[in-house]
Amino acid sequence: MSEHRKKRVAILISGRGSNMVSVIEAAKAADYPAEIVLVLSNRPDAAGLARAAEAGIPTQAIDHKTFESRESFDAALDTALREAGTELVCLAGFMRIFSAGFVEAWAGRMINIHPSLLPLFRGAQTHEQALAAGVRLHGCTVHYVVPELDAGPIIAQAAVPVLAGDDADSLAARVIVQEHRLYPKALALVASGRAPLEGGRVAFATGQGTEGALHSL
């Protein structure tokens, strides 16, 4: 196996998939260390499926509503990922909580982007949470997925200022610009082996510093 072979990546979405689009665009570069082999959604009507198909990427919908349990849905998801030869999984607005068994099966090979500077503001409505807390910096985080929600080891972060007069929408608009820049860079770190998960932490390559792992506006 060539050291420079591109890692096979599946992107999971539930909606329009704006972060998915940024990763697909980045992966078009010849020197990008990952290729997108599947875009999969739990919602057959997800707008991102059409966008992925337009880019020539195989798509699949597995409707979670047709399964009796979280575990049976996760099993179908796992089968689809393995059939596509998936090596890394990117969550891009995938609005499902996984069973612990699924997370364990993909430990160290599944990443997510979250719209806050974790460990601050886990869960939903992160921009409202940031405004309520009065923080001066907000942003986004790419992290490995662990069973505890939004608690996985951090791969990369990007920060934006919170400005006077901001509301949740204006803050979200500033953050998503950084999400679209950060996620492709973080995936490249993981796919190239420069940010492996070791002992519950991200083990950056010696001398790498924060290059590629920290961005600010």
From TrEMBL:
The active site is at 114 (proton donor). Keywords: Purine biosynthesis, Transferase. Residues 7-187 form the Formyl transferase N-terminal domain. It catalyses: N(1)-(5-phospho-beta-D-ribosyl)glycinamide + (6R)-10-formyltetrahydrofolate = N(2)-formyl-N(1)-(5-phospho-beta-D-ribosyl)glycinamide + (6S)-5,6,7,8-tetrahydrofolate + H(+). SUPFAM superfamilies: Formyltransferase. Belongs to the GART family. PANTHER family: PHOSPHORIBOSYLGLYCINAMIDE FORMYLTRANSFERASE. This is Phosphoribosylglycinamide formyltransferase.
